[in-house]
Amino acid sequence: MIGSKTKALWLGAAMILCVSLLAPAMAQAYCVYNDTNVKLQVCGELCSGCLSAIVDPGGHACCPGDDRGCRGTTLISFSITYPDDTGCGGWSSHHKVDAHGWVSIRGSVHATWRQCLDDPAKAGENLTVTVYHSDGSIAWQGPAPRHSAGCMK
Questions:
Q1: Strand pairing partners for 132?
Q2: d(Cα 93, Cα 58) in Å, to the nearest integer?
C-alpha cells in the first residue's frame, strides 16, 4: 500500500503537470529598432494595449508578449518626433512582424518640422524598413511606405 506522503507527492506532481499543460503558451513579443538620426514614435497595429513608445536614435522598444497586440503578426507604424515632441508624417513597416521577430528602421531625416508638415513623403524618403522573422531571415525590406495615420490611439 502506498503511504500518505507518497500519495501526496504523486498528487502534487499530477497537479503541477495539469497546470503546466493548461497554462498559456510562452509569451511572444517583437522589438522595433531605431537606426535613424531622429526620435521615432512607434506603434503596433494602432490599438489600445499595443506597442506605443518613443524610441531615441540608436534605441529600441519591445512589446511584451502578454500584452494584447504583442503576440506577433503585427503591422508597425511610426512617425518622426521632433525635439519639442511634435510629430510629423506617418510610415509603416509594410509587412507584419512575426512573434519574436523584429523591425529595423534605418536612414536619415534632415527635414525640419515645418518641412515635414509641408511634404512628409520627402522628409521620410531616406527611411528604409527591414522586417525580420524570428530566425533572423528577412521577411521584407524596402523604402518606408507612407501611412496616412502614423501613430494614433
A1: 102, 138
A2: 18
Residue 79 is part of a domain; what is its CATH number?
Answer: 2.60.40
Counting beta carbons within 10 angstroms of the beta carbon of residue 65, is it exposed (0 to 12), middle (13 to 18) or buried (19 or more)?
Answer: middle
Classify residue 48 as left (phi > 0), alpha (psi -120 to 50) or beta: beta
Domains identified in the chain, total number: 1
- Report the C-alpha gap between 66 and 27 in whole angstroms: 6
Residue identified by cell 513608445 is 53
Question: What distance in Å separates the CA atoms of residue 101 and residue 91, rounded to the nearest whole number?
Answer: 19
DSSP state, 114?
A: H
Buried b (16+ CB within 10 A) or exposed e, 20-30: eeeeeeeebbb
pLDDT mean over 79-85: 85
| 21-63: pLDDT as tens digits | 333 344 568 999 999 999 999 988 766 667 889 999 999 999 8
